[in-house]
Amino acid sequence: MPSRLAPPATPARLAAEVSRPRGIRPRMYDRGRTRRTPSSSYFGEMHDERPPHRLALGGPRPPLGKRLRPWHWVAIDGAVAVVLGAIVLRAMAHLYGAYNPHHLGFPRPSPLMSALAVLAVVTACAGLVLRRPRPSAGAAALWCGWTLLVTVAGRYALAVPAGTAMVVAATLLVYQISATRPLRWAAAAFGLTLGSALLTAPLGSSDLQQGAVVCAFAVSVAAVTGRLVHRNRTYAAELRRHQAALLHGELTQQRLRVAREVHDVIAHSMSVVGVQSGYGRFVIDKDPALAAEALDNIRQVSHDSLRELRGLLAVLRTTADDGVAPPAPGLADLGPLADRIGRAGVRVDLTVTGDTGDLPPGVALAAYRIVQEALTNVVRHAGSATANAAVTRTAEVLTIAVRDDGPGPSGHTGEGHGLAGIAERAALHGGRVEAGPAEGGGFLVRAVLPLTGDAR
């Protein structure tokens, strides 16, 4: 019985299985290629934010936020930290003199207490600057500043504006970590910030405790928002990778289609030319007329193959604006194909049953190429004088059978791509192929292509 050839794994199926490499964590700057520069040796592993179309000539100009480099963002954070620190320190300097506003009972701070409070504010602002390049260091700086402020100056009035700076820095830092780092980092930053705020209850004034409540709310909102942004960026990065994999698979399939078409045209014509040239050399001394006939056959086959190649190149060069592409060969061209095979020394008995005139062009081309490749294999390997090619169309399937009366499979190593190309063509249309020794001798190639939808 003929052996069934399993449909080959298509490139699209392989490309769809492309997954993200392990160990690669999604980061905020996932729109460009990671690189290290002299500045990144200090700021850590910085990611190029520039999108791919930024470097494309004539591409759309991205918005300002997309054009900024990582060090630009660090500079912006530094400017925010300087402005925030200046405002807070000015307010603290005022409260150092007017230490008990509204007569709420705040004690007078000592110069050492005031200096430590200023140091806490500077430490928190430094954590704000480090939130992008070194989030862990920024979180540590903010936690140290908050702890120092609460334990040393929590009962003083100047701690209230300093606490405002802590709330702003903590909100921005928690958002940054939640948006760019894994969940465990975000949870750790959120828990550390809330734990620091709890120190206000036993050590801070009532005004500072109210600021801690505001801090807990703001940090919670920042954490949730950051995780949503992180998820959207991760999804966008995965979608880009998936689209790139699909594009790669589509391009691979296009290359395979071109390779199959070129193989079918070249292999068929070269097989006929090889047989005819050998025959012509054999009879050139005995019967020059037969040698001249062989040369005529070679000329005709070469002309037909060149015409098919030109048609194939025209299809490849045709775009949507160029109009209609040249027609591809179909079942109506099986007669001339049988004549060319006959001139190569193998008589072909061709039978076409059923109405094949309304077949889709893709199915008709696949059937033609299957018959062409099967007959080419007969010429090259079968050592047979005759071959039978039958194409039968029913309401549901198109059956193609090519059989020769040769001795069957020989010692041929099968290094060519003939049967594999036949199986690929059938698989593209949901069909199957069986190839093997036929009952009663010879070799049989049988393909079944299902007809669905408009093909019926």
From TrEMBL:
Keywords, comma-separated and alphabetical: ATP-binding, Kinase, Membrane, Nucleotide-binding, Phosphoprotein, Transferase, Transmembrane, Transmembrane helix, Two-component regulatory system
GO molecular function: ATP binding; phosphorelay sensor kinase activity; protein dimerization activity
Membrane spanning stretches: 71-92, 112-130, 137-154, 160-178, 185-205, 211-230
Coiled-coil regions listed in the entry: none
Region of interest called Disordered, as start-end residue ranges on this chain: 1-57
Record field: catalytic activity: ATP + protein L-histidine = ADP + protein N-phospho-L-histidine
Superkingdom, natural source: Bacteria
Annotated Histidine kinase/HSP90-like ATPase domain residues: 362-453
Biased composition (Low complexity): 1-16
A Pfam short name: HisKA_3
EC code(s) of this entry: 2.7.13.3
This protein's GO CC annotations: membrane
Classification via SMART domains: HATPase_c
Protein name as it appears in the record: histidine kinase
